[in-house]
């Protein structure tokens, strides 16, 4: 089980991802979480820095789909102004939303990566689908929901403890 929770790459922020290396590795699609991955959980819109990064991602030839466990209104408020397709209420780590994202991009699992801040949803779901998984540090832990704080983050601490051994 621990190998399913282990990301292929771990970075501080999305800005630390080497997009050229991803492209060389055959990655053409980015499935990204929203809350605490792209912006803080309470931030409704993209920052200018994030808008620039997303433009760079598209210029380099990547497709992007946001896959979030959050509700439609939250995700659409963020994604619609950026013209980024999204899948809300994704129920990660189940496979359905990841499959749908791959279909939207017309890509195979080995051609896409998942970027997220949670091992229990983003990394586990991506690894189960055979996607390249990238774990980022959460932008703002203080804004997380009860389940994420009480369950997911505690389970992550235990998993990280065992991974270090």
Automatic annotation (TrEMBL):
<dbReference type="Pfam" id="PF13242">
    <property type="entry name" value="Hydrolase_like"/>
</dbReference>
<dbReference type="InterPro" id="IPR036412">
    <property type="entry name" value="HAD-like_sf"/>
</dbReference>
<dbReference type="InterPro" id="IPR006549">
    <property type="entry name" value="HAD-SF_hydro_IIIA"/>
</dbReference>
<dbReference type="InterPro" id="IPR010021">
    <property type="entry name" value="PGPP1/Gep4"/>
</dbReference>
<dbReference type="InterPro" id="IPR023214">
    <property type="entry name" value="HAD_sf"/>
</dbReference>
<dbReference type="Pfam" id="PF09419">
    <property type="entry name" value="PGP_phosphatase"/>
</dbReference>
<protein>
    <submittedName>
        <fullName>YqeG family HAD IIIA-type phosphatase</fullName>
    </submittedName>
</protein>
<dbReference type="InterPro" id="IPR027706">
    <property type="entry name" value="PGP_Pase"/>
</dbReference>
